[in-house]
Amino acid sequence: MKTMAKAALATLCLSAATAWSAPITFNTALPVHEGGWVLREQLVFMKIADDSTPARRDMEVSGLVSVLGYGVTRDFALFGMLPYFDKRLDIRMGGQDITRSKQGLGDLTVLGRYTAYQHDAPGRTLRITPFLGVKVPTGDDDTHDRLGRLPPQLQPGSGSWDALVGAVLTWQTLDFQIDSQLSYKANREANGFEAGDVAALDASLQYRLWPRSLGGGVPAFLYGMLEANLVHSAKDRIGGVDDPNSGGTTLFITPGLQYVTKKWIAEAGVQVPVIQHLHGTALESDYVLTAGVRINF
Amino acid sequence: MKRLVHIVVLALGLTLGIAPAMAAPQAYKLRVDGLACPFCAYGIEKKLGAVKGVERIEVDIASGTVAVTMAEGATLDEEAAKKAVKEAGFSLRSFEPVPTTPQGTAGGQAK
Fold first, then answer.
1. Chain A: residue whose CA lies nearest to B50
2. Which domain holds residue B76?
3. Which domains does chain A have, with CATH numbers?
4. Measuring CA to CA, which of A137, A207, A245, B85 is 20 to 30 A from B25?
């Protein structure tokens, strides 16, 4: 379960700069105009269950992820991402069903993105943008319930300062868009727990479904989307020792729809794990539902 | 006398017919590279709209063109247009003044 929660949550963290007409689950290299703002509000529901052990673990995470982007220059943009989580874990212990839960603001991720390569042509653009970010431990990481301190996966924040680095490639035409991202998140220790580092390789294809042919002006686009996220998590460390029931590799596939206008975007997708190679007694993830809007101002 | 009347009529015709066209605001056609989605068009409109004297902006995403109409008496400098397009994150391919049409006939984005 820990691995799946981490893999799914990692895709959220890695989408910190996804505030453009872009993939749902990760970033894009498209520009934020100088002096311009982009706001994204993303609702997420994550289901992690199907535990075959006697503990019958079942975890649900609902979240509202807010992303604000600002174009500092034409090539450099800053993004801030702040999630609000409602986490709930149902578990069977000593013959009793127990529910542990926590709500609250999570950790703030601040990320800078620079356009290192840009090739524009009529109706198309190719861009490569490396990015560097830091996750600040703004969320509460020491919350308790009647059973004691909540496990790290239920805490709204991690308590650690973590680093995020990566690069995105975007090829956008009037008919379709391809994005690909390579990223690495280095997690640090806090409260005796260190989440394993996360490496991810993502790809996305957006295809314009409507209008089939373009007339004059700026019509709204309806994109069909298919995304893939290959996420590898290293083993967590508890008290300096590797947790054998953590870490592994997951491949998510995300079909989705995106409606793009000049000033706003509405989108929805469902992230489904199709391949999971997890260590120990990790749980299988069921799905991650995502719906949201982005606003240009 | 007949010749004089012809001249006067011609002069009146020219005055009435051409003068309004001469008074029409200056317009420009910009070809912008890299423009490939509706969300991107907003940045172009915002940046060009901030240029002094710009009154109306019409983006045509299929052709990658932006028609800019100026307020009466104002002109658009190519360097200013290039800077605005660049700040929006795109590239200006070409810039040309175009014959103007009477004001208020197009459905573009007025400032």
1. A35
2. 24-100
3. 2-296 (2.40.160.40)
4. B85
